[in-house]
Structure formats: structure tokens, C-alpha cells
Write a structure and sequence with these properties.
Length: 231
């Protein structure tokens, strides 16, 4: 028996050397009752599996109540326009972390991108209303909307923050900077000046005002260098 196996091995090696290994493997596979080797795959034609998705799903297996993983999965499905899964994971992220402004803004954006403008408006209004009890949370929500290019909702959030707390230097600053980024110098100057009046210890606001042609004095900084810097 041992001699027979050795003979077969030698034969097999000879076949390999003659370039007929594929045929032998197919014959052996048929004798063993297994499938023959699959033909070569064109790697360029067949995309690789989304390892990010697989990794995130594996992390959920470890800890399902992780809101950040749900949010990241939602973004993956959002990008691939899998609206059903994107909505599911955005909502899961928010359910595990109700104050997750990035997930809230992402869900609104997903509705808008999928063509459901009415639902986007419904959810955006609800989130802005909920955040309205806290200036900080309203500004955070506005910032997340702005990062997603949803300027209407971002501006609405910033305005709600200022309306809720007109004497908040942070709210006036954020609204002023928003107008500054959008090239609206008149409104930018109005809200940045108000923010600076409420809290003059803001070198960044002083700098923005200087670039808008308004020279102000920040406490603790000599007037000469500031004027030079902001001209």
C-alpha cells in the first residue's frame, strides 16, 4: 500500500512538471466527491466586499448598543443609497444616544437625498425644536447641518439659538461666522459686533471684524499690534 501511494505521488509530480496539474486536480476532486476548482476570477470586474461594513457589523455583534457604530453604518448605507438600511441605523444611533446631533442631521439629509423632502422638513423641525431648550445643543445641531451642506436648516438653527438667548456671545458669534462663510458681510458684521460687545475677550472675533473693516480692541492686547493685524 505504501509503495502504491509513493508511485502515485511520483506520477503526480511528473504531471505537475508537464503543466497538467489542473487536469489531475479535477480528476481527484471528482473521485473524492468534491467540486472541481472554480475558474479564475476577474478581480477587476468583481468588486471586493465592503470591509468597512463587515467590520462595523462585527463590532455590533460585540456591543449592539454602541451608537457610534450604528451612526457609521448609517453613513455607509447612506453613501451607497441603501435608504432603508441607512434610515434604520440612523434611528438606532439616535435611540441609543438621543443627543447625537450628527445622526439627527444625517437622518434629515438622508430623507432629502432620497427625495422625501416632506419627511426631511418634518424631522428637521422636530430636532430644531427639541434642541431649542439649550443654546449649546442648538448650535451643535446647526453646525452638523452646515457640515452636510444643509444651509437652510443650519441657518434656522443658528437663528433659533440667537432668538432663545439674544445675550449669548456664542450664539451671536456662530451666526456671525455663518454669514461670514457665506459672504454676507453686513449680517456677519452685525452679529460679530454684538458677540464682541457681550464678550470682548475673543481674539478670533476681533480678527474677523478686522477683516471686515472694523477695528476693535481686545483686552490685554496692545492696540497698535491689533490694528496692524486686522487692517
Amino acid at each position: 500500500m505504501t509503495l502504491g501511494c509513493r508511485d502515485m505521488s511520483l506520477v503526480a509530480r511528473g504531471v505537475v512538471m508537464q503543466g497538467l496539474l489542473g487536469c489531475v486536480l479535477m480528476m481527484l476532486a471528482g473521485c473524492a466527491g468534491t467540486e472541481a476548482p472554480a475558474p479564475p476570477v476577474n478581480r477587476e470586474a468583481v468588486p471586493a466586499p465592503d470591509s468597512t461594513e463587515a467590520q462595523l457589523l462585527a463590532r455590533l455583534e460585540e456591543k449592539f448598543e454602541n451608537p457610534q457604530v450604528h451612526y457609521e453604518l448609517a453613513r455607509v448605507y447612506h453613501k451607497s443609497q441603501n435608504w432603508t438600511k441607512a434610515e434604520r441605523y440612523y434611528i438606532q444611533a439616535i435611540s441609543f444616544e438621543p443627543g447625537n446631533k450628527a445622526a439627527q442631521a444625517g437622518l434629515v439629509k438622508m430623507f432629502a437625498d432620497s427625495g422625501d423632502k416632506a419627511k426631511a422638513e418634518e424631522f428637521a423641525s422636530a430636532y430644531i425644536r427639541q434642541a431649542g431648550i439649550s443654546v449649546k445643543e442648538t448650535l451643535r445641531l446647526g453646525w452638523e447641518f452646515e457640515q452636510l451642506g444643509m444651509d437652510d436648516y443650519a441657518l434656522r438653527s443658528y437663528r433659533v439659538a440667537v432668538a432663545t438667548a439674544p445675550d449669548s456671545d456664542a450664539a451671536n458669534k456662530q451666526l456671525g461666522l455663518y454669514y461670514r462663510r457665506k459672504g454676507d458681510s453686513a449680517n456677519a458684521k452685525q452679529y460679530l459686533m454684538r458677540s464682541f460687545e457681550l464678550n470682548p475677550r475673543q481674539p478670533d472675533v476681533a480678527g474677523e471684524l478686522g477683516r471686515l473693516g472694523v477695528v476693535v480692541q481686545t483686552p490685554g492686547i496692545p492696540e497698535g499690534p491689533l490694528e496692524e493685524k486686522t487692517k
